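Think of the structure tokens as a kind of shorthand, similar to the way a musician reads notation: each symbol stands for something richer, in this case the local conformation of the backbone. In the example below we present two proteins back to back. Begin with the first one, reading the sequence and then the tokens, and try to describe in your own words what changes along the chain.
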Amino acid sequence: MIQAVLFDLDGTLADTAADLGAALNRLLAEEGKPPVAYELIRPVASHGARGLIELGFGIHKTDPIFDDYRRRFLDHYEASFADLTTLFDGVNPLLQALTARGLKWGIVTNKPMRFTDRLVPALPWAVPPGVVVSGDTVGVPKPDPKPMLHAASQLGVVPKTCLYLGDAERDVEAARAAGMRAIIASYGYISNTDTPHTWGADGFIDHPEELLQHV
């Protein structure tokens, strides 16, 4: 019996790719490099700063300049993290339906608190989340299960009664390790090179409201 639904943020509840891409392209412009098209940015957005810097500059996180680029990217993103970000169509009707069924809901994201503490309150939720766990809330991010377990504890439910919706392999890994069911948001930031059918999820949805079929 599902008592709570937990969600990833980027690519699952909120469409943040445009603001992330804008930050990357401002950094690229500073370095005299051409911008990256949105169509290339969107599938990588769930991988955050690391994935976007690798995309824009063609370098690995072990490159000596990587940390400087990451710091500057985050500074650019911090200046405009909510300019273009919106909730995906269907998210608010889903949250209202979950609440009507007596279910709790929350967010477990790898996004740092410096962003989630301001972005989440700025979004137009029909029902506010019962808990928000960021990538640095408990000291380790997904795929470690600790953020998932912390969210369940804060909501007052046991992990096995939770369902998690995300759009990345680490989301499924974290949910599984925490003893939760895992559903993949196929509408999210999934690239052509990803293989979501090998991630071991319990199901897939193409629209947020389809999640109601799984609770």
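Once you have a description of the first chain, move to the second and do the same.
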Amino acid sequence: MNKAKLFTKDFLIITFINFFVSLNFSLLMVIISEFAMIKFNSSPGEAGLLTGMFIFGALVARLFTGVWIGRIGQKKTLYIGLVLVLATACLYFGAASVSLLLVVRFLHGISFGIASTSAGTIAAKIVARERTGEGIGYYGLSVTVAAAVGPFLSIFISRHGSYSTIFAVCTIFAAFNLILALFLSARDVKLTEKQLAEMKEFKLKNYFEPNVVTISIVCMVIFFCYSSVLSFFSVYAREINMVEAAGFFYIVFAAVIILTRPFVGRLFDFKGENLIMYSAILIFIIGMVIFSQAQAGHIFLLAGAVIGLGFGALQSSGQAIAVKLTEQHRMGLATSTFYMFADTGMGSGPWVFGLIIPFTGFRGMYLCVAAIMAACLLLYYLLYGKNAMRGIVKQGDVRPCE
């Protein structure tokens, strides 16, 4: 029996659209703390708040995006998001104070939340069910590669150009995405009159997908921990004299994920999610310990490889589990619910860790992250893993964890 085709025109287009949306995010995420600390003399806590404000904006947008997708369709929602991404990218040029920058970050987060949620919904509907792990894994590479290219470009441009040049590059990418979206031909899922009527009712289940809450909580903790690396990466690298190695950290990070992603996706589909999730959490813990204690460039890059292997597998597998648990007509809600929890972790992390740094230093803070990830092993088992092991988690089960 032939496998369902995976790399269709629409799949490639939506993957590239998500790549450029994510690239805008990672380009700014890495340097925004440093930008605020240098230009406005902000404290680490204030700089972390700037990072978190973006995620908070995305969180607010995701709360309503799943409903909009159900009512007006994922393509129209995607177009709205991409237009807003372009508009907010232009606003960075006028941010002349920390207060204005906070507003811009919040608005940019809203646009990012709309665009990325609708793109993820389109991708989930394009991928055949029997290839969920593999398909979502490849789609997730758009985020992974962006997470590698973005920091590399940010560090390169900031060293040889200016912050305004970074803002200009983000604006160009946002404009290109709008053009790319015109070639997307994926059809919206047709909802029945009953389903449309239900979506218009003011009910909690019209804003959250109950099936994916437990796995989303686990991923919230994972993204909470990863935010410590992303938001303070540039400052940490400078403090420990790893600026040269820092330029290649995310290249190594992405290379490892790209090389291992095909195997991770297939293992997910054929061996189950528990094998991937337990292994990846352990690998992530090891990576954070190495990262916290790195004294030489090659050790710093080794940490990038190990963290990339662990986090990359967790990111794609977590979303694949969410897709696996959801019915087609509620895919938008499932995607928005998953990202809402992930954004909560990503947004609160920089602020929390920014408050910890003055007491522990960067190395101590990253050891705390490793300890939190260790607790995440138990959390995954209690909320999802034990039922997956028993084989009682299935699509449409509104109680995925007893």
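Compare your description with these statements about the second chain. Residues 56 and 306 are 29 Å apart (CA to CA).
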